[in-house]
Amino acid sequence: xxxxxxxxxxxxxxxxxxxxxxxxxxxxxxxxxxxxxxxxxxxxxxxxxxxxxxxxxxxxxxxxxxxxxxxxxxxxxxxxxxxxxxxxxxxxxxxxxxxxxxxxxxxxxxxxxxxxxxxxxxxxxxxxxxxxxxxxxxxxxxxxxxxxxxxxxxxxxxxxxxxxxxxxxxxxxxxxxxxxxxxxxxxxxxxxxxxxxxxxxx
Length: 202
Ligand code: GRF
Hints:
By secondary structure, the protein is α/β, with parallel strands linked by helices. It has helices at about 20-30, 50-55, 75-85, 105, 130-135, 170-195, and strands at about 10-15, 35-45, 60-65, 90-95, 115, 140-145, 155-165. It has a 7-stranded mixed β-sheet, with helices on one face. The structure holds 5-O-phosphono-beta-D-ribofuranosylamine. 5-O-phosphono-beta-D-ribofuranosylamine (GRF) binds near residues 16, 22, 95, 96 and 116.
């Protein structure tokens, strides 16, 4: 009988600043042995990020690089770049990472760094997306996974998922509905990218 071989996987670093529910969705996805990625590192710029606990519980290596300990963005980014050198990372997934990264950081990772955003980009770049969609009387919203470029929330779109906006939605109820879509979209997008990066199965 032919022996089953483990498919090759790409190595992920996930950057968080808070709750980390998208990170947890990726952790769940990686539990499936056929998922073509593994999480090598979870990095947070905030020592109190809730998601760190979930990552540690899952046995994932964590790094805290507190942006407040650095006197400017470039020094903070250099510390993150240096930390990354210790790992063999193929793809960075920003998952609620609340620091803007400059081209100093993004350029060496261009095409190898993605973000998830809670709107149907190019609509509602930036913060408070749900408040703005409600104020505009929209009937539909969603989430977007995209490559990271120096212009915020502007890189090439990899995947979008949509959901309806109900008449009685508040920013919180809408955020919850969009988040359900995010938790599907992010693992799907990582799978798509990994399948392109990995050599075809022989
Ligand atoms: C998500 O809505 C994500 O789209 C946005 O920040 C939020 C992070 O949530 N970038 P979580 O930390 O993944 O739970």
